[in-house]
Specification:
With 165 residues, the chain is mainly beta. It contains 1 helix and 11 strands; from the N terminus they run E-E-E-E-E-E-E-E-E-E-E-H. 16% of the residues are buried.
Length: 165
């Protein structure tokens, strides 16, 4: 599956730490993307940061997202990177990471998910201040054809702009 992601700048726009169901590759078309990679550490070792671990899966026919608690975890930051226009990266499905727009204007990436070795769930790790989403189903926002066409037109306009503006 190939998707375009539009990342908007601003405070607090980092994703939660998570992994994916399938291997992925991403290419930065414009702007810049910041990314951190994490690894789990032994909770008794006293290092890393505390997080609540959830498994995100899809519910029923609608395929809404469901977060179910899986316990506590500790994570250690192992890499920080910045990807600019023209660069790319690939991640196996188990790699814990988070990303954000690291530019003053929106960043656009192409995201290819291969589907190979697909897992049934995604791990999502939240800090203590995030709140408890346990057992909550989050409805996916469905777009009709006109909405999809409007989003694609907005993306085309964004890509036509001078990235230096």
């Amino acid at each position: 599956m190939l998707r375009a992601h539009v990342w908007h700048p601003g405070h607090g726009t980092s994703e939660d730490i998570h992994n994916h169901r399938s291997p992925l590759a991403s290419y930065v078309v414009r702007g810049a993307l910041g990314m951190e990679l994490y690894e789990p550490v032994d909770p008794g070792a006293g290092e890393g940061v505390a997080a609540a671990w959830y498994r995100e899966s899809l519910t029923g026919d609608e395929g809404d997202w469901l977060l179910e608690p899986s316990g506590d975890a500790r994570l250690r930051l192992v890499q920080s990177a910045r990807y600019t226009a023209g660069s790319g990266y690939a991640l196996p499905p188990h790699v814990l990471h988070r990303a954000w727009c690291d530019a003053e204007r929106p960043t656009v990436t192409l995201f290819l998910e291969t589907g190979a070795g697909r897992r049934r769930y995604t791990d999502v790790l939240l800090g203590a201040a995030t709140g408890d989403p346990a057992g909550r189903a989050v409805a996916k926002k469905r777009l009709d054809v006109d909405d999809y066409l409007a989003e694609l037109a907005a993306l085309a306009d964004l890509l036509a702009e001078d990235p230096a503006d």
